[in-house]
Structure formats: structure tokens, C-alpha cells
Automatic annotation (TrEMBL):
Short name of one Pfam family: ADH_N
GO process annotations (BP): formaldehyde catabolic process
Any one GO molecular-function label of the UniProt entry: S-(hydroxymethyl)glutathione dehydrogenase [NAD(P)+] activity
Organism annotation: Jiella pacifica
Keywords: Metal-binding, NAD, Oxidoreductase, Zinc
Residue ranges constituting the Alcohol dehydrogenase-like N-terminal domain according to the UniProt record: 27-160
Entry annotated with the keyword Ribonucleoprotein: no
Name of protein: Alcohol dehydrogenase catalytic domain-containing protein
Domain of life (superkingdom): Bacteria
Length: 230
């Protein structure tokens, strides 16, 4: 199908809107019509080639939208479902098989490889576009800076239909990073004192999570400007 995507064509270059072709979903894949997508610092790191992800590339890894079509092997997700797209995992390594998908052995290739794990790519230049470098997608299993994204069932999360997708999109990376650090990794206990360095989307999410966890104090530091809230 024809999609429109924001493409990074050169290191530190601008996002250029291009018409591309996106293949149909494979057995475990989910085609999502993107409604909203957050911009995370990691998108900008990759645009600047701090990570060696091949260009040209469609970035975007905080997508949210409506399921358009699912592969034959997808269970529990169907066309019309509102979903948030998060990070993918291989589902087969020892970490994935024991529920620790965030530590997937293939996390780097699957998120930053610019292709599926088998090296294939669902995004193509349309016939006659005259481009001599293959376009890369599957960034964090989605490449959601586009009108449609192809995710895997491992990184699709169904959400209630009465919640605004534009607010849910950043849950896929930035918000869960900040909240997960507090609630899962640090397991902040009620009455704890918490310090958060950096108050962007991740830090603000950590603040909300620390409040929910019952932290007695939350100290913030940003660009030399420090504040403390009871
Ligand atoms: Zn991110
Ligand atoms: Zn894995």
C-alpha cells in the first residue's frame, strides 16, 4: 500500500516527506493507521547517527493508532482496535521466554537494525522513484513517523477506546522509561526520598510515578536549576 512517511536521508538532515510502499503484514505483524506519534530523543540521536542505523530511514517509535489489518497468526488483536506501539522483542531468547522482554538478546538489532531480524524490509520506494539507496524501516518494530506502520504483535498494546490516542502515544517509550525506572527497576517504596536528574518527558514521568509510589520527597535537577517538592 502507499504510505506517506517522514524520511531521514542523510546524517543530521531534515525529515523529508516521501511517498513509499509498505508491504502487507506477515503472520505475526499488525498494520496500524497512525493517529499520533511522540518524538523521543532517541529519534534525534539516530537522525544524527549517534547510533549506526542505516539511512535513508523512517524513524518514530512512540506510535498510536487504529489497527487496519493483522497477519494470519496474530491473536487477540483485530482490525479497529485502538493501540499503542512500544518496543519489540524476539519472543524466543531466554529473556523473552521468561517474561523479561526488555532485556531481549536481540534488542539492538530488532530496534536499530533498520529491517526485520531476517534482514527483510516492508518499506520500499515506489516504482519509478529513481532512488538508488534502499529505504529502511522497522525502527523499534514500527517506524511510525508515517501514515501507516507495520508493527509486530509483540509490540502492540491494546488501549481503551475512550482515551485520547495523542496522549497515549508517548507511553510507548518515554513515559514507560521514566515510570518503569521508578516502579520496576528501583521499586521506590512509600516514604522514600527520590532524586530525578533531567526533567524532560522521561523525568516528568518518573516524577508522576514517584508520586504514585508514595515517595516522601522528589528532588529534581535540570540544567543547574534545582527544586524540591514535598
Ligand atoms: Zn524512545
Ligand atoms: Zn528476545
Amino acid at each position: 500500500m502507499r504510505v506517506r512517511a517522514a524520511v531521514i536521508e542523510e546524517k543530521a538532515g531534515p525529515f523529508v516527506f516521501r511517498d513509499l510502499h509498505l508491504d502487507d503484514p506477515r503472520a505475526t505483524e499488525v498494520l496500524v493507521k497512525i493517529h499520533s506519534v511522540g518524538i523521543c530523543q532517541t529519534d534525534i540521536h539516530v537522525r544524527n547517527q549517534d547510533y549506526p542505523v542505516p539511512l535513508p530511514l523512517v524513524l518514530g517509535h512512540e506510535g498510536a493508532g487504529i489497527v487496519e489489518k493483522v497477519g494470519a497468526g496474530v491473536k487477540g488483536i483485530e482490525a479497529g482496535d485502538p493501540v499503542v506501539l512500544s518496543f519489540p522483542s524476539c519472543q524466543e531468547c531466554s529473556y523473552c521466554r521468561t517474561g523479561r522482554n526488555a532485556y531481549c538478546e536481540h534488542a539492538f538489532e530488532i530496534c536499530f537494525g533498520g529491517s526485520r531480524l531476517d534482514g527483510s524490509n516492508a518499506l520500499h520506494w515506489p516504482d519509478g522513484a529513481g532512488q538508488n539507496k534502499a529505504i529502511h524501516g522497522h525502527f523499534f518494530g514500527q517506524s511510525s513517523f508515517a501514515t501507516y506502520a507495520l508493527a509486530d504483535q509483540s509490540n502492540v498494546v491494546k488501549v481503551p477506546s475512550d482515551l485520547p490516542l495523542e496522549l497515549l502515544a508517548p507511553l510507548g517509550c518515554g513515559f514507560q522509561t521514566g515510570a518503569g525506572a521508578i516502579l520496576n527497576a528501583l521499586q521506590v517504596a512509600p516514604g522514600s526520598h527520590t532524586a530525578i536528574f533531567g526533567v524532560g518527558a522521561v523525568g516528568l514521568s518518573a516524577i508522576m510515578a514517584a508520586r504514585i509510589a508514595g515517595a516522601a520527597s522528589i528532588s529534581l535537577s535540570r540544567l543547574g536549576l534545582s527544586r524540591e517538592h514535598p
